[in-house]
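Lay summary. Proteins are chains of building blocks that fold into shapes, and those shapes determine what they do. In this project we predict the shape from the chain. Here is one chain we studied, written as its sequence of building blocks.
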Amino acid sequence: MSTKKSTRFYNDRRIRAVWSDEENKWYFSATDIVRAINDEPDYVKAGNYWRWLKKKLSASGIQLVSGTHDFKFEAPDGKLRKADVLDYEGVQLLAKHYPNTKAGAFFDWFSYADNTIDGQSRKKAYDLFESGILNTLEPGSIKCLQQIHAYIFGGLYDFAGQIRTKNISKGGFTFANALHFSTILPTIESMPETTFDEIVSKYVEMNVAHPFMEGNGRSTRIWLDLIFKRSLKKCVDWSKIDKNDYLAAMRKSPVDDSAIRELLRNALTDQINDRELFMKGIDYSYYYEQSEN
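And here is the predicted shape, written in a compact code that computers can read:
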């Protein structure tokens, strides 16, 4: 047994996993998976649902859980307790026999099988960490932002990495006029980025510019982290920033950026080379962009 652990996020619900040295594979918390699929905020209710579902599936001859493992996860009271776990095949089997249709979307995300533009670009965003490309970019530059966008959306949008030439708006807010980008973007690029406040100001201005037809938020959040890493040896733990709080703060930021400053400041961490943190950040970044049903 090892203490190697992993955490990913699906729609703001964490999926915890523990590595088995003996079997050379990951085991995932069954209750976490139920919470994620059902979007259930109550851990106890999710646990009850899992026990009911396990019993129901077992009665149908579907055995999901091995009783030979002693993995422990933190319970709501903060204590470590043994919990049911599923390996990859178990998660796949659970999704196949799940009582509602939400499990399909979850498993697509879990298995990287989502063939939508969001799903494919998310996989490319994950790959950024492994590729080493981030280490070759010049943080804070327009070219850096374009390279991030081109990597994530290359082959998915014909405008990947290209500055837009048309005007766009979202939620009643009109972003910067594309006709003025020859002046606006170099001005933003030259903004100082030596302090936290300077960096956030630059981030807010780039958000107002919104230089791409699509994919601005996902690209710019990575761009922001690169600036923080170089200038402050910090990055953002995006899992600490609530989606609604973030969106509200960004909507208000063109006239008052105090809310986004507070959110970012409270989420800063020095774990700048942590792969797990980067993956969580991508999960949250894409979660921010999902429209509510």
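What the prediction tells us: The first strand starts at residue 5 and ends at 10.
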